[in-house]
Write a structure and sequence with these properties.
heterodimer, A: alpha/beta, Rossmann fold, Immunoglobulin-like, 8-stranded mixed beta sheet, 25% helix, B: alpha/beta, 6-stranded mixed beta sheet, two-stranded antiparallel ribbon, 12 helices
Chain lengths: 660, 320
């Protein structure tokens, strides 16, 4: 046994206090004369002996209590060197969707059981769930049974795989543990996608061993529905485009069935070439195709059932109307119109956006629309009344600032101060401090913010005001992108515009998704909603309401959503907000459909580095109070304090019944 | 039928006079004779000297008139004949033989504090004061010192002075009380039985002791006394500690009579002791009540005066 603060042991000298008091009060040896001992009787002898025993017991309890307190403050610990082969093991659980493939989970369990059976006290065991972010199911501890109990019910998930962050967390914890052997048991299928982001040149801390089960065989029959696009066709028809990937080794014939609100619409057969993605087109009549739709396509069963379904939700046709004000300089290329055109025609994977013509002067604006406003025209006295009415009624607007007096005057009326950035001719500025949690920018944060941060602006305007929420700042920390409300209307104001002379943004790759996401977010202020998301990605919700599963592969409990939700199970969901029902689709990440294992498992060994032999002086390092392992071992000091407390209570109890 | 008694007004005076007794002064006086005189003189300061007054049908002799004597008892015929003031004495007054007995056992030598007298000191002072008063009445007294020594045939009584009334006898009595011998042991029962054989039938015995004896034999002895018409007045002297057991001493307690030792934690043993002591006192009171003997308890931390008054009352024939 060692002590973390051995200097406290000097306080054992305090033991002399009760001993001294005891000796001081000890019965003197002088005889006390008394007229008649007959009246005291034999009972007095028994009482005397009982009191003597109690006094000695009180002394003992006092000494033990003091010793307990002193030892507790000295923080004793027992280094585990007494066990020559003790192990610290962390089981990293791959809860990705690929583990749902037939036989994979069973194979991992069969490999894990004998590994865990070798553990004996004082070995340590912890369980770390890898996805979506590493999280401890059971922290590394000596309680082997607790960890084993959790492992008997390995959590099932639909997450995307990425091993490296979890392995780093496990390795960092093991590096702090005191054990002869430190192991990470990777309870996963070593799917190729899971290792893609791993840098095998960067090894784990020294002395940590990575053990993996045998790489599973490639599935014989594996096809996946990786995407589903649905559009309303003419004449109450629904048009589908399903993307089917054949991960199997051979060509096969598969049947795809389409559903709308649990109503089977029909099936199509497709011949799928191995390793290829086929686009399957289908069209079915559906009388209620103008309403909001919850749609599913399902593939006939194979070795991986998790990716045999794909979901899509379509808003009502009355949603997501966009009206764009005319460009301020008609001679320039209208990059905004180009973006909108691309969104409505070029890609079927994006949410539908319907463009409507900008209203004439005097015509009221439809408040269920999103108005994209640029130049001075919409803020001219002829239009400004319609604009204000539109916003009051709940319409949303995106204002691209150009510093025109009309804009400036309108902003001033809303208590927003518009001022141009002091940029010289050759000077450029950029965005910074993006509000990553904001629904407008969260999708970028989930992938990469670099495209937004590398845009160079020749012109820019800052937007200051007491009621604005800043979404991004300029390099000089003035607001570059803000959100504020006028009446019920939501306004996104960007301190830049869509002209090429203002920035290179319109020709950058981020322009199109930025415009798309901006319109989607603004449209959520009305009765519109995004089409869907992936498992474990945050999904913006239009306010507070009840999130319920409509069609999911496993039961999902309804819950209250407020602003956003992160679904963990693919499927179709409804979100009920003040009796308005909206549908959402959540799909698996398509990478999980590629079940092929990492081709060179020998790479895993590159992560391991043999621990260098410590110098003689380093073998028994001075324990640091910040070492979490030692903190665990020092838990005894709490017990000592508790013991001292109990002894003191006992001492008080007996002392109160003991005469001096 | 004797009619001698202490007048109520005299008793009231005596009780109020007890406040004049300064215990520290009393205890500081070196000899028993001085303590007795201090007690009597202070108690009866300014009062009539004669305490026992009364008449009896059978005339015995004359004695000189003393201040305080009832004038009704003055023999006016003798005064007319001889011009001498004399009081008539009757059979009941001078025929009552009184023997003072004192327990000299070790337990009587106990005192819990140095400022207190031992129980034996109190007993000796009380008996000496009583002797002084009786001598002034020209009554006769005897003395028995109770105790045993192994080297002689004491048979329970170390020393015995027969009942006499001469001044020489009185001096001898005081001398015995001044320096009593120290006995090796004492069986109060045996001593009382022996004393009964030394006294004439109908004698009065004033016994000062702590009465630490088994109640049953003591009861038997008192019944024997009752049968022999021996009047016993028991004066129990106790130290306050014996009554309250308010002591903090722990360890070995030594019995002053037997020398036996006992390990005792005084605080722990207090409750049981007080219970036993109360039972003992009740038993003692019951024995004396049953045998129609008087029983008085005195504390060494209090004035002995109440005991003295009680003795005087007991000695008065009308009180029997």
């Amino acid at each position: 046994m060692n002590f973390l603060w051995p200097a406290f042991l000097g306080a054992l000298a305090a033991l002399s206090v009760p001993l001294w008091l005891h000796l001081l009060k000890r019965t003197s040896r002088k005889l006390t004369p008394f007229p008649s001992l007959d009246l005291l009787g034999r009972q007095a002898v028994r009482q005397y002996r009982r009191q003597l025993f109690r006094k000695n017991l009180v002394l003992l309890l006092r000494c033990l209590a003091i010793a307990g307190i002193v030892f507790a403050f000295a923080r004793p610990y027992w280094p585990l060197e007494h066990s020559e082969n003790n192990r610290a093991v962390i089981v990293a659980v791959d809860n990705s969707a690929s583990m749902l493939a037939q036989g994979r989970r069973e194979a991992v369990e069969a490999w894990l059981v004998p590994q865990l059976a070798k553990l004996r006290p004082p070995d340590q065991l912890g369980v770390l769930m890898l996805h979506p972010t590493p999280s401890w199911l059971v922290p590394l501890s000596y309680d082997l049974e607790a960890a084993k109990t959790v492992l008997k019910r390995l959590p099932q998930g639909y997450e995307s795989s990425d091993y490296r962050p979890g392995l780093d967390v496990a390795a960092a914890r093991l590096a702090l543990a005191t054990a002869q052997r430190k192991e990470i048991l990777l309870a996963g299928d070593s799917q190729q996608a899971a290792w893609l982001k791993a840098n095998f040149q960067r090894s784990l801390p020294g002395g940590i061993h990575l053990l993996t089960p045998a790489v599973p065989a490639a599935p014989k029959r594996q096809a996946a529905l990786v995407a589903l696009n649905a559009r309303r066709g003419p004449g109450n028809h629904l048009r589908f485009e399903a993307h089917v990937f054949n991960g199997g080794a051979q060509e096969e014939e598969r049947e795809i069935t389409f559903f709308a609100h649990d109503q089977r619409l029909g099936s199509v057969s497709a011949r799928l070439a191995p390793g290829k993605t086929a686009k399957i087109h289908a069209e079915f009549p559906y009388s209620r195709n103008q309403e909001a739709l919850a749609l599913r396509a399902s593939l006939s069963a194979d070795d991986q059932p998790a990716d045999d379904h794909v979901y899509v939700a379509l808003p009502s046709v009355s949603d997501r109307r966009v009206m764009v004000s005319p460009p301020p300089a008609p001679s320039d290329t209208d990059y905004l119109q180009h973006a909108l055109l691309s969104l409505s025609t070029a890609s079927q994977t994006l949410t539908e956006i319907h463009q409507h013509p900008f209203p004439e002067i005097g015509t009221p604006w439809n408040p269920t629309s999103v108005a994209l406003l640029r130049g001075p025209h919409p803020f001219s006295p002829q239009h400004v009344r319609q604009l204000d009415d539109f916003l009051e009624a709940g319409g949303s607007a995106w204002i691209f600032c150009d510093g025109s007096p009309e804009q400036e005057a309108w902003f001033k009326k809303q208590d927003v101060h518009l001022s141009a950035l002091p940029l010289a001719n050759s000077q450029r500025t950029h965005l910074r401090d993006l509000a990553l949690q904001h629904p407008l920018l969260a999708p970028f944060a989930n992938h990469s913010l670099l495209p937004l941060l590398t845009i160079r602006f020749q012109q820019g305007w800052s937007l200051r005001g007491p009621a604005v929420e800043v979404l991004a700042q300029w390099a000089d920390r003035t607001p570059a992108m803000v959100e504020f409300y006028v009446g019920k209307g939501r306004i996104l104001a960007t301190g830049f515009n869509e002209s090429r002379g203002s920035s290179n943004f319109p020709v950058e790759a981020a322009w199109l998704p930025f415009v798309h996401q901006g319109i989607l977010w603004l449209s959520e202020n009305q009765t519109q909603q995004p089409q869907g998301s992936r498992v474990s990605e945050p999904l913006a919700l239009p306010g507070a309401g009840t999130w319920s599963a409509l069609d999911t592969p496993r039961p999902v409990v309804s819950q209250q959503g407020n602003g956003s939700i992160t679904p963990t199970t693919p499927g179709l969901y409804s979100f009920t907000d003040e009796s308005v029902v909206r549908y959402f689709a959540v799909n698996l990440s398509p990478e999980e459909s590629d079940l092929s294992p990492w081709p060179t498992p020998s790479d895993f060994k590159h992560l391991e580095v043999e621990e260098t032999e410590p110098a003689e002086t380093e073998r028994q390092p001075t324990p640091s109070p910040k070492d979490p392992t030692l903190v665990e071992e020092r838990d005894t000091w709490w017990w000592l304090l508790l013991l001292a407390l109990i002894l003191l209570v006992l001492e008080m109890g007996i002392s109160n019944r003991t005469y001096p | 039928m004797a009619s001698t008694k202490i007048p109520p007004e005299t008793l009231r005076t005596l009780r109020s006079s007890s406040r004049l007794i300064n215990l520290s002064v009393l205890n500081a006086l070196p000899t028993v004779a001085l303590r007795a005189r201090y007690l009597v003189e202070n108690a009866f300061k300014g009062q009539h000297r004669s305490l026992l007054k009364g008449t009896s049908p059978e005339f015995a002799d004359y004695r000189s008139y003393q201040v305080g004597d009832d004038l009704k008892r003055l023999d006016w015929r003798l005064y007319a004949r001889s011009d001498r003031l004399a009081i008539k004495r009757y059979e009941d007054e001078n025929q009552q033989a009184t023997c003072l007995a004192i327990d000299l056992s070790g337990s009587l030598r106990y005192r819990s504090r140095p400022d207190l007298p031992t129980k034996l000191d109190l007993a000796r002072t009380l008996l000496a004061a009583l002797a002084l008063l009786v001598r002034r009445q020209q009554d006769s007294l005897g003395l028995a010192l109770l105790g045993d020594v192994s080297n002689r045939e004491s048979d329970g009584i170390l020393d015995f002075l027969p009942i006499r009334s001469s001044p020489a006898h009185h001096r001898a009595l005081l001398a015995r009380l001044e320096s009593p011998p120290e006995p090796e042991s004492l069986s109060l029962i045996r001593s009382l039985r022996r004393l009964a054989t030394l006294l004439p039938r109908g004698s009065r015995i004033i016994l000062v002791s702590d009465f630490y004896e088994d109640p049953d034999p003591l009861s038997a002895v008192l019944r024997e006394y009752q049968a022999q018409r021996l009047e016993l007045i028991g004066i129990q002297v106790l130290d306050p500690t014996e009554i309250t057991f308010s002591m903090d001493d722990n360890g070995l307690f030594a019995d002053l009579e037997t020398g036996a030792t006992l390990p005792v934690n005084s605080r722990a043993a207090r409750a049981a002791y007080l219970q036993r002591f109360a039972r003992f006192q009740n038993d003692l009171a019951e024995i004396f009540r049953e045998t129609q003997a008087r029983w008085i308890t005195l504390r060494t931390d209090e004035s002995p005066f109440p005991g003295l008054i009680a003795c005087l009352q007991a000695i008065a024939p009308s009180s029997r």
